[in-house]
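Box S2. Input/output pair 1.
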Amino acid sequence: MRCQSVPFLVIGIGLVAGGCAGVQGVTSNDTGGIIPWTPETQQIAYSIASERCARYDKYARITSVYARPGDYIGFSCVWSPHARP
């Protein structure tokens, strides 16, 4: 019986420890968000931001790119594709 609970304990510890790692992945809401920077995400950042903003019937605008590991690509969601920043 004890051997059956060990895998669940290991998975539980992994989930708790993973929550301590900080922001993982895209964080956004109806006003904009951030995308963790990697060379791969920099190439598709506009597509990621557009998909997130489309949930609120808005358009994406990339506002900042800090091209260093550990930094982010910032974006805002605007009502019109022609709106000024």
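Box S3. Input/output pair 2.
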Amino acid sequence: MGRDSEESVAVVVYREDGTWQSGVLPEAVTDDLDALVGVARQQPGENGAIALVNVADEFFVAVRVRRDDVRMLLSDVTAAVAWDLARQVVGRLGLDAPGEDDLEDVWPAGDMSIFADLGLDEMELGAVLADVDAYADEMLLAVASRLGFADVYDRALEAAAP
């Protein structure tokens, strides 16, 4: 296991029969993008599944899988300098990883409209991600609240807690 998995948690959420469901994903997917996509793809759901990975409260990755459509969002592209999962997302997005001199500013990478059809548009998601004082868990909870699955997301986090 890479160092990402040591302090990370991955949760999957999906809608089934109009109700949000959640589950904790295996620790191994917290530092392996292909495994994360594969596990998300196996979940049921009317509109696919959303995998959310909080890596050490430093950044998060959201992956949304609907059939063959895979969309992803990285909350902080500068995380690619130090974290395996972030580096894999940046690579999959076809972006260059930031250099050591580019670490002053935090910015997201990926699909800012990943949740638009669920009611969280790019501007509102951008506002959540622009809060440089917020930890990844706080950003994820804000996203979960706005999308209407905060309660099931919380239950999954409680189940994952040691």
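Caption for Box S3: Residues 91 and 157 are 28 Å apart (CA to CA). The mean pLDDT is 90.
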